[in-house]
Amino acid sequence: MPAPDAFLDVRDLRIHFPTDDGLVKSVDGLTFSLARGKTLGIVGESGSGKSVTSLGILGLHNKRNARVSGEISLDGTDIVNADPETVRKMRGRRMAMIFQDPLSAMHPYYTVGHQIIEAYRVHNNVSKAVAKKHAIDMLGRVGIPQPNRRVDDYPHQFSGGMRQRAMIAMALSCDPELLIADEPTTALDVTVQAQILDLMRDLQQEFNSALIIITHDLGVVAELADDVLVMYGGKCIEYGSAVTIFEEPEHPYTWGLLGSMPRLDRGVTNRLLPISGNPPSLINVPSGCAFHPRCAYEARTGGLGTTTVPELAESGRGHLVRCHMPVAERKRIWNEQVRPKLEATS
Amino acid sequence: MTESTAGESVATQTPTKEALLSAQGLQKHFPITKGLLKRQVAAVKAVDGIDFDVYKGETLGLVGESGCGKSTTGRLITRLAEPTAGKIMFDGKDISHLGTGAMRPFRRDMQMIFQDPFSSLNPRHTVGTIVGAPFHIQGVKTPHGVKRAVQDLLKLVGLNPEHYNRYPHEFSGGQRQRIGIARTLALKPKLIIADEPVSALDVSIQAQVVNLLEDLQNELGLTYVVIAHDLSVVRHISDRVAVMYLGKIVEIADRESLYSNPRHPYTVALMSAVPVPNPRRREANQRQRVLLTGDVPSPIDPPTGCRFRTRCWKAQDICATTEPPLVVREGDAPGHQTACHFPVADNEEVAGRTAAA
Amino acid sequence: MVAYIIRRLFGAVLTLLIVSMITFGIFYLVPRWAGGTANDLASRYVGRTANPEQVAEAAHGLGLDKPFFVQYWDWLQAIFVGRDFAFGATQAHCPAPCLGYSFIGRNPVLPDILDRLPVTASLAFGAAIIWVIFGVATGVVSALKRGSIFDRAAMGIALGGVSLPIFWTGLVSLVIFSYTLHWTKPGGAYTPIEQNPGEWAYSLLLPWITLALLFSAAYARLTRAGMLETMGEDYIRTARAKGLRERTVVTKHGLRAALTPIATIFGLDVGLLMGGAVLTESTFSLPGIGKYAIDAINANDMPKVMGFVIFAAGFVVIANLIVDVVYAVIDPRVRLA
Ligand SMILES: Nc1ncnc2c1ncn2[C@@H]1O[C@H](COP(=O)(O)OP(=O)(O)OP(=O)(O)O)[C@@H](O)[C@H]1O
Ligand SMILES: Nc1ncnc2c1ncn2[C@@H]1O[C@H](COP(=O)(O)OP(=O)(O)OP(=O)(O)O)[C@@H](O)[C@H]1O
Ligand code: SF4
Ligand code: SF4
Ligand SMILES: [Mg+2]
Ligand SMILES: [Mg+2]
């Protein structure tokens, strides 16, 4: 998977938190890479380690309570082992982040403009006046009407969609090469979500940055991502191009995600096909394949799923799957059993 | 789907239709006060004159964006809030202004499921106490004792009856939502109003709860009003769907009719905004998408005439002066009501992403 | 905003009226319910040897025989127009802002209190400066180094500091630093600032430190809790993600938000102290308002006590008002709501 033109290269990333209840293995051996101008979608349910991964890439974990190991290299610079000051200078300038809830992610006491100016000036040696001009310019670019007036407003005076636009303006103010959006539209209405996704797509083309979009909404992934990484229990369980993941998924968990989701572009299915059980605990991760307690196909691997962790193995070109079932059997189950049920309509 | 088949499918259902709940001209205005004497200077017109029926045994979906008045509508029809104007008929009786005491017998028949499975259960009570509370409050006799009744309910919603003595924090989000559902089922209600029952849950868990709601409806003959902002979930679960915008119902129809032939420009925009989980259709979706500009106006001072006109690409002069009535348009399926002067036609080229700007 | 301030002012006046009415009731009504007559009350002011006629005359001259609400009204009115009293033959005048007249000391209450205000103000503000700097700094460092030895030691001491009564710490420090080591001045040695600023500070050093210790402990704990909460906020993560220096993140983004509730409490605490740091002043025998109140209570001089209560309540109410307005200025969400 590591592409030669990779801009971001993550190898065997592990982020563990020692807590009173035990070691929380939030991210446990994650490997992926991303080229400039490309978009990676990371999906997975709550607690699967998506946010912890993104904070890790920005080097935002506190050394005192997080154990980070492995390698994260951004254009050749290793973030895990670099000194904090080097990483700080990269943050905001070379890599930036957009968060889920734009109201709580902005400081309530400072104006929107002030917060963008601050982000710009920390990396660019310019006067306040120049930075303010830049902030107004950025607000205009993300589609805020009357930016020279709104620049002096406080975050709470903006609507939800405008706040997220302002967050994007702030993240893009230093023209970063990597942009990570952690659930950027989850808190927004669907019509506003459409606007924001559209904006992100346009801006990515304009800036040619690498984009990681983290979400639990497969629709959002399908709209934006070139490649998709499915996480479960801190591990990547399936990786492939967006078309592969939506049309030829091979991991039972991915099937479950697709079956759980009602779709507007199809007829109404009789019944959703949920995944039984509950998400795993990250302290006592189930032995073997972390998904085995919820997996309907666990018996097919003769108990291997309960004892041995499956490797993330190549199943087709650029398609990686972490499952003990033989590739042919997975393809057969998908084509003969799962896909027909997903497409069945009443 | 063509209109004639839509018409037929509705027609076959018509004879069995009997309204369990009916709202007429329902309004809720929250006063805004100001100044030294706290005079009322304005009102949040959260719900501003809506009419709809809920038929026995069906599921009515209520969709719309944040703040359009969905929850307020839910609170009005369960009479957790008193309407400012209008009438609510439940099972043939007018309950619009009944006091707490007079409402009590009706409370058994209508129950509410809330969005947040974490804050809606008292953390200091056991599951048994929580699910059994309605029996005590309403003074209901249970043939084999309350404990048996509660354990039967737990089984019904797919929980282990042995969980009787556990506390809510020992359960996951999906399990808590099941506890909440078990509680609402205790008194065998006729109508259940579910306000965003799955939006706080993970996708895989959402599907479990949606299936559970459907199974219970089939088994117990329940009537649902499901409030949600997720159009796909609403389509999956509802028989009929009402679309709200700024305190008004702008379109209400049979599910099939609404999703295949949306008439109101807002409904069209709303549906086209839903991301489609098909990466191959990405470009096509983007081209067809109607991108609304601007924000939803304030419910304190909504636009005159049609409330959607400030963001509508079809607006004409009449839209600013005359409020369009919610009526069935010629050629539409029976019961497909739209509040628009210029409804979107079947194969109309709707504004793409540039034209809507 | 203006309407808000006016409404708050109305509220403040109303609060003072209610406080005064209740206090007045306690001092003038409760003794009567307990069976005391107007003459019993008056007998305190005319000396032991007075005969019943003199007592009755005094009771009448002081208005003690009037109905409660008339008495209260007379008292209230005096604040605006002043009042005359008669003790038998002698007449006394209490000029316009009349908060009462001490029949024992034979002088109006307010000038006495105002005379003592500089002492109390010196004590309160000096201590406040020390405890804010010291308490907030300790709290911030503790929060940033949570779980460290510094944190645990500081919080341990703070817990002790909060629970030790001031008369105990005051006396112990007097014994050690003043009487034994002779580093500081003994109790009761107050020098006004206009006489000699150096002496003034020197004379107040021990009371300041003792009082500040108590408040520092509370403020350190408050600041620590506030900082821990704020540093966990999403906007702090955003600030770091922007690449800001940790120092900027902590001071500009963290501390600014964490200090808002502390500023509120600070205003109220200073307001409270301005009405008399009763324990500290009596422990160190400082001639401030608190000492005045204690003396008045010991002497059973009700008009003095009454005047003190209203004066102190006034400070608390004013502090409250200022705090609310300041809060609205600090937090734009409140200001622009
Ligand atoms: N500082 C921490 N200390 C201990 N555990 C942590 C810490 N931060 C995160 N975790 C745990 O790591 C796991 C992964 O968290 P993460 O926030 O990455 O989930 P996520 O995939 O982003 O989920 P969501 O969709 O809910 O945002 C969670 O179980 C969380 O409790
Ligand atoms: N108690 C109240 N006092 C004043 N205004 C209120 C009150 N409750 C609701 N509102 C206002 O009424 C409008 C409709 O609110 P409601 O909660 O019904 O919206 P909703 O459609 O349920 O939105 P959401 O999807 O965000 O839950 C909003 O503008 C809201 O701010
Ligand atoms: S390894 Fe076994 S348990 Fe895990 S997903 Fe594959 S079949 Fe299921
Ligand atoms: S009535 Fe006019 S403004 Fe309203 S939706 Fe229809 S066309 Fe648009
Ligand atoms: Mg997350
Ligand atoms: Mg709601």
UniProtKB/TrEMBL annotation, chain A:
Highest taxon in the source lineage: Bacteria
Classify the protein's membrane topology as the record does: Peripheral membrane protein
Is Cell membrane found in the keyword set?
yes
Keywords assigned by UniProt, alphabetized:
ATP-binding, Cell membrane, Membrane, Nucleotide-binding, Transport
Q: Which Pfam families match?
A: ABC_tran (PF00005), oligo_HPY (PF08352)
- Family (UniProt): Belongs to the ABC transporter superfamily.
PANTHER family registered for this protein in UniProt: DIPEPTIDE TRANSPORT ATP-BINDING PROTEIN DPPD, OLIGOPEPTIDE TRANSPORT ATP-BINDING PROTEIN APPD
* Record's protein name: Dipeptide/oligopeptide/nickel ABC transporter ATP-binding protein
UniProtKB/TrEMBL annotation, chain C:
Q: Where are the transmembrane segments?
A: 9-30, 123-144, 156-180, 200-222, 257-279, 308-330
Its keywords, alphabetically, are: Cell membrane, Membrane, Transmembrane, Transmembrane helix, Transport
Q: Which residues form the ABC transmembrane type-1 domain?
A: 117-327
Query: InterPro entries annotated for this entry?
Result: BPD_transp_1_N, MetI-like, MetI-like_sf
A Pfam family hit: BPD_transp_1_N
Compartment annotation: Cell membrane
* CDD domains (alphabetical): TM_PBP2
Q: How does it sit in the membrane?
A: Multi-pass membrane protein
Q: Which PANTHER family match?
A: INNER MEMBRANE ABC TRANSPORTER, OLIGOPEPTIDE TRANSPORT SYSTEM PERMEASE PROTEIN APPB
What family is this protein classified in? Belongs to the binding-protein-dependent transport system permease family.
Its protein name is ABC transporter permease
Give the source species: Asanoa iriomotensis
